[in-house]
Design goal:
Layout: E1 2-8, E2 14-21, E3 26-31, H1 45-51, E4 53-58, H2 77-87, E5 93-98, H3 102-111, E6 116-122, H4 132-135, H5 139-150, H6 152-161, H7 167-179, H8 184-204, H9 210-219, E7 234-239, H10 248-256, E8 260-265, H11 273-284
Parallel strand pairs: 3-4, 3-5, 5-6, 6-7, 7-8
Antiparallel strand pairs: 1-2, 2-4
Helix pairs in contact: 2-3, 5-6, 5-9, 6-9, 7-8
Length: about 290
């Protein structure tokens, strides 16, 4: 089952989400990565169906099909997830976040302790310290973090330009960008993987670049909640060969979380979920 739909939130905004797996399965909310959207979970359909998991991935405000939210912050996100859970009739659920979605998943663990059973961050970033941005493997990240922090309008305009690039050209550009980081997962995903990343990027920018620029701006500064408030069990998964986000981020995160559990995966990179999703879900729902 793959469903791509949306719900209206109490404040009138529409929140778009993609759902895969077993509609009667154990619920897990997925927070998508940066330069991406809800559709990135489509690869997980078979694993989730087999595992009895209902994986629900909403677009953040202003990204993909979700309406914009003026002045949004990371600590606003748990309210949207909670409202979506209400609309779907779900009382308790787990939350996972991949890459730039990791901080949003942790926010849910910190601010929805009565509803979130467990959290998993996969290939996620830690709060950015001096020099961290320069160590990120993807050139787009190294450019967008400072640009969004100091000139968000320029960052949004730069991202919007990608909407006008022909899909075939964009796929080639994305493929070159991914290969430049020397991440072992990229080589295994090949051109089809680059095509998926390009398609998700295009969908994320459907409304322009403001939503994604806002994401980068929020992640570059204080997240709005202390990690020590994340009282639920938090698994921190990271590939030891991640070429985009150094594993040092995972070590910092696990050390800062009261119930953090570091899970380093040898030989894997930034897309480790493609090979270890079932393992991540089993731990998340243990």
């Amino acid at each position: 089952m793959i469903a791509d739909t949306g719900v209206q939130l109490p404040d009138g905004r529409v929140l778009a989400y993609c759902e895969v797996g077993d509609v009667d399965g154990r619920p897990v909310f997925a927070c998508h990565g940066g330069l991406s959207c809800r559709l990135e979970v489509r690869f997980a359909e078979e694993v989730c169906a087999r595992s009895g998991v209902r994986l629900i991935a909403p677009d953040r405000p202003g990204i993909g099909g979700s309406d914009r939210q003026a002045g949004r912050r990371i600590d606003d996100w748990p309210r949207d997830v909670s409202a979506l859970a209400d609309a779907l009739g779900l009382e308790r659920f787990a939350v996972m976040g991949w890459s730039a979605g990791g901080p949003y998943a942790l926010a849910c663990g910190a601010l929805l302790p009565e509803r979130v059973t467990r959290v998993a961050g996969v290939a996620g970033i830690a709060p950015l310290c001096a020099g961290d941005v320069r160590q990120l493997g993807l050139l787009a990240d190294r450019l967008l973090f400072p640009l969004a922090a100091h000139a968000p309008g320029v960052a949004a305009l730069s991202l919007s330009v990608a909407c006008r690039v022909p899909r075939a050209v964009l796929q080639q550009v994305v493929g070159l960008a991914l290969r430049s980081v020397h991440d072992p997962d990229v080589a295994e995903l090949g051109d089809p993987g680059a095509g998926e990343v390009a398609a998700n990027l295009l969908e994320s920018l459907r409304q322009g670049g403001a939503g994604t620029a806002r994401d980068y701006r929020l992640l570059a500064k204080d997240w709005g909640f202390p990690l020590r408030r994340t009282g639920v069990q938090a698994d921190v998964w990271h590939g030891e060969a991640d070429g985009m986000v150094p594993p040092a981020h995972a070590r910092r995160l696990a050390g800062a979380l009261p119930r953090g559990h570091l899970r380093l995966v040898p030989g894997r990179g930034h897309f480790l979920l493609r090979w270890h999703l079932e393992e991540v879900l089993q731990a998340l729902l243990a």
